[in-house]
Amino acid sequence: MDTRAVILAAARTEFAAKGYDAASVRAIARVAAVDPALVHHFFGTKERVFAAAMALPFTPGDRLPEVLSGDRDGLGERLLRMFLDVWADADFREPMLAVLRSATTGERGAAMLREFVGRELLGRVADALDLPAEGRLRLNLAAAQMVGIALLRHVVRMEPLASASEDEIVAVVAPTIQRYLTGT
Amino acid sequence: MDTRAVILAAARTEFAAKGYDAASVRAIARVAAVDPALVHHFFGTKERVFAAAMALPFTPGDRLPEVLSGDRDGLGERLLRMFLDVWADADFREPMLAVLRSATTGERGAAMLREFVGRELLGRVADALDLPAEGRLRLNLAAAQMVGIALLRHVVRMEPLASASEDEIVAVVAPTIQRYLTGT
């Protein structure tokens, strides 16, 4: 194995054992028996090590700044469209399904997914919106709406949702996400 | 194995091979090498054979008539509360997670879940509400909201959703379900 592959194998071990929050680039480097600077050199942040270790083609958080900037009234629609686009990409969907499957299999996989999504996605949205504590539940419920759509559309392939256009879904669901996020 | 166990093993084989719609009590009886009348005697309908084969403690559809009767304005809340109650029950949740896991693993498991939920749950709601074709997508999206809540609350255990009370969830989500189902 080349060094990159050794680091990714070490990362999978470390994330599976400790979850996302408690795992560190330093510990991953230790398991891989390389210098932490080399992990940073290859991947950058912990978030990017995670995405690479899970074979995700990009880091979901990369697209957030664009979604979170712009007018507040269009936030629900922008967030929903980003989510639908990402899941329409089979290169993203297949590895993401593996992460989801591991979450349904035991607490370790669940912790990994919970902490990654909680910190890198929902945490950033909450910070950008300056959400009060009460708003965190609404943010979870917005995430639940979107995750449920991904599951029924791409995994269970429930009709007519599986064949609906993005615009048809947005027309019904964007107002829901907007209401959950901003109360309007 | 006693006859009941033989029938359930045959049912699991039949549902996994053909999905829910194409499977029949007659074919299950044939695989089990018993008379179809015996399957009916032990379990009743195909829906009940399915629930027993998947180790569900009850048939979700059993609770629907009560939810679907009563005033239309309270339908979203009643449906959501039924769903939350059912998933709060570990005896239901664990086998249901096994069904969900099998749906994320391959098309056969997905077809089984899709057809069972489509026919025995969503189909009945659509019939009771006399939904137009356009309403079917909204019904899928209501299901997506609820399935996503089950996943994040009980599997991924995302906070604060995992610890939220049923009433807190209902306060935010019941209006969504109501809007999806009746457009109000």
Features:
2 domains, Arc Repressor Mutant, subunit A, homodimer, 184 residues, mainly alpha, Tetracycline Repressor, domain 2, 77% helix
What does this structure look like?
- The structure is a homodimer of 184-residue chains.
- By secondary structure, the first copy, chain A, is mostly helical.
- Chain A has 2 domains: 3-53, Arc Repressor Mutant, subunit A (Orthogonal Bundle), CATH 1.10.10.60; 60-182, Tetracycline Repressor, domain 2, CATH 1.10.357.
- Helices cover 77% and strands 0% of the residues of chain A.
- Chain A contains 10 helices and no strands.
- Chain A has helices at residues 3-22, 25-32, 36-43, 46-53, 64-68, 75-88, 90-105, 107-129, 133-155, 166-182.
- The radius of gyration of chain A is 17 Å and the shape is globular.
- Chain A starts with a helix and ends with a helix.
- Chains A and B meet through helix 7, helix 8, helix 9 and helix 10 of A and helix 7, helix 8, helix 9 and helix 10 of B.
